[in-house]
Design a protein that fits this description.
By secondary structure, the chain is mainly alpha-helical. The protein is built from 3 helices and no strands. Helix 1 packs antiparallel against helix 3. The radius of gyration is 22 Å and the shape is elongated.
């Protein structure tokens, strides 16, 4: 039977299963951290903690911090999280030798 081009040859196979497990463990930990920060920024800072943050004003502006987070801060944090996720995953991919 001829070897198919999609068949993995033993010398090309990953050396250990633990490397793949370590990669996915790091991947899941990163996703969980990013989603936790996202949930805290969107739900916590923009909705739940607004009464506490309304007493704090941004320096140089007369805008309550709770209002700013509900309208602008969460969006800024989301964009920063997108870039942080891409940078962190690039490092994890290189560390586990799965980069494109």
């Amino acid at each position: 039977m001829a070897n198919s081009p999609l068949e993995i040859k033993p010398e090309e196979a990953p050396t250990t299963l633990s490397n793949g497990q370590a990669y996915w463990k790091a991947n899941k930990r990163t996703i969980f951290t990013i989603l936790s920060i996202w949930a805290f920024a969107s739900l916590g800072m923009s909705i739940l903690f607004v009464p506490f943050l309304s007493d704090v004003f941004l320096p140089g502006f007369q805008i309550p911090l709770g209002f700013w987070f509900a309208h602008q801060g969460a969006i800024v944090i989301f964009v920063v999280l997108i870039f942080a996720y891409a940078w962190i995953m690039d490092r994890i991919d290189r560390r586990h030798d799965v980069q494109e």
